[in-house]
Amino acid sequence: MQALVKKRGEWTVVTMKGRIQLEKTGAFREACIKTLQQQKVVFEMSHLQFVGSTGMTEFFQCLAEMQNTK
Question: Which of 1, 38, 39, 40 counts the highest number of beta carbons within 10 A?
Answer without folding.
Answer: 1
